[in-house]
Amino acid sequence: MVHAAGAPVFYDHAYLDAYEQSPLTEIDAFAYLAVKRGEQTVAVAPVYLQTAADPLGLLYKAYPEASGQPALLSHTWHCYDAHVPSTIGVDVVPTVINAMLRTATLFRAQWCGFVNVRRGSELGQELRANGLPARHLIDRWAADLTGVTDYDHYLARLGERARANLRRNERRSGEAGVTTEVLPVSAAALDEITPLCDRTAIRFDNGGFYPEGTFAKFVAALGDRAHVIEVRQRGRLVAVGVCLTDATRFHTWTCGVDYAVEGNYSPYGVLFAESVRLAIKLGKPVLEGGRSNTVFKQRHGLSPHHLDAVLLRA
């Protein structure tokens, strides 16, 4: 169903199973909704009961009236692209909403609804068509790579200053002894990667978003859905990207960066360049850049997509 609907990797069985076995945030209950027409399943939707429903500090700013109350949400916060995978389109959304309300009552949650819905998407439009007002959470960033044949082609699409910055950073990192390597999760240094991602999350006030032990197990369970980019300076890990792929998208899902490096270069800039190269190499027409770091992403060829939340009292 997920593959037929073209839904992102966050709805793939491997991702959902990994999250249930190794949840990265506190999940009180898991539920999986299936919409049927006769004997045929025509839509699916995972939903998660979360007492700690706002690990990124976004939801309660949009919905202060829901602060501190359990909520049944359309996905976890590690997914930034909400969908209702369906083979018959978004006409199933009212049915899914009714099922969410019933499930929320069963779980004794005060709220239920959708988070990280891209404004203007089919789901976003259908929610609005059903009279459900959306409230803005944050923006996510993406680039259309259709027709981009190599990294130089990508650079040519950027402004002169951004293009010069990336080329200068590549030269300086090379002079500083920096190397990069793309690895399957089975060969990646997950014991080094986890604390680096966690320290980076703390810089953005998101401490605990990549819990030690659980994070490594989760990433390992993703198998070939994940690619790890390691950036090292004379053997020391200075940046890492855990990237996910689906049929059409390359997701720079999460990263860790150590800015205390020798030499006048940005480890994040190196990681970004390698992510673009890998997305092009894998033939993915969309580069998903995730949330936050607005200035860098806007300057280097990514465009914003507004992400909304739609909550209902259960």
TrEMBL record:
InterPro entries: Acyl_CoA_acyltransferase, BioF2-like_GNAT_dom. It comes from the Bacteria. It holds the Pfam family Acetyltransf_6. Gene3D superfamilies: 3.40.630.30. Residues 161-298 form the BioF2-like acetyltransferase domain. This is BioF2-like acetyltransferase domain-containing protein. It comes from Lentzea guizhouensis. The lineage of its organism: Bacteria, Bacillati, Actinomycetota, Actinomycetes, Pseudonocardiales.
